[in-house]
Design brief:
The protein has a domain at 44-90. It is mainly alpha-helical. Helix 2 runs antiparallel to helix 3 (48-61) and helix 3 (48-61) packs antiparallel against helix 4 (68-88). It has four helices and no strands. Residues 37-82 form the TERF1-interacting nuclear factor 2 N-terminal domain. This is TERF1-interacting nuclear factor 2 N-terminal domain-containing protein. One of its GO terms (cellular component) is shelterin complex. It comes from Lates calcarifer.
């Protein structure tokens, strides 16, 4: 199996970065993704914006990582959870 394919949910045929460059990024990306997984696992809604930013950046760096539809559904779901939590706690939707 191609190493680049294993990084993607769908087959990647046109990456913005060469595979060698992606290998150099792997350790930092693994650390960040592990931290973000912990955020999601602990349901730390306060940090969901960071998760959304990471997903957006990753999808821009590696085209085909998620489909546009999946990326949109994930972003909307994260934003919805933040809104729901903030309104339940009676916090302003947009902190200063």
């Amino acid at each position: 199996m191609n190493g680049l394919y294993s990084l993607c949910f769908v087959p990647c045929t046109d990456a913005s970065l060469p595979f060698d460059a992606l290998q150099l990024l792997a350790p930092p990306v693994r650390l960040v993704s592990a931290a973000l997984w912990k955020v999601l696992k602990q349901r730390d809604v306060v940090q969901y914006g960071v998760v959304e930013e990471f997903v957006t950046s990753a999808c821009e760096t590696v085209p085909g990582l998620l489909t546009v539809r999946h990326q949109g559904k994930l972003a909307l779901g994260l934003r919805g959870r933040v809104r729901e939590t903030r309104s339940a706690l009676r916090l302003p939707l947009h902190p200063p």
